[in-house]
Amino acid sequence: MYLNKVFVAGNLTRDPELKALPSGSSVCTFSVATNRVWFDQNKQKQEAVEYHNIVVFGRQAETSAQYLKKGSGVLIEGRIQTRSWEKEGQKQYRTEIVAERVQFGARAGTAGPTQEVRGGDQPGQEGSSAGGIEYPTEEISPDDIPF
Global pTM? Predict the structure, then answer.
C-alpha cells in the first residue's frame, strides 16, 4: 500500500497569487512557513523554519486567494509532488504540496481561535448582550434540561 498525505499548519509568507490555466480552471500558489523548536545537548533552545510551496486548484483556489493574506494562519491537507522542467539547459526541480483541503486560521492582526472577541458587556450580567445575542437573565436549573 502506498500513501502520499501531508498536513501542514503554519503562516503564509506572502500573499497568494491567483492565475488561470488555459482550460479556464483557477490555480493559486503561496508559501507557508512552519517552525520547529527543540533543545540541543547543551539545553540551548534551537529553532528551525521550513518553507512549503502550496498549490491549490479550482474553486478552492479562488477562495484561498480572496481570503488569505500574508501572515494568515492556515491548515493544508494534501499530497507532495515534485515537478521538473528544463531551463537554459539545466534541469530544474520544485517540490510542492498540492492542496486537497485548505482550512483558514486567524488572519494576521486579528484574534486567533483561542482568543475571544467580545462587545462592551460580559455574558452573565443582567440583560447583557454581545454581538446581538441576548443572554437569559434568570438562572437555569439542570432540571430544566429535557435530556
Answer: 0.69
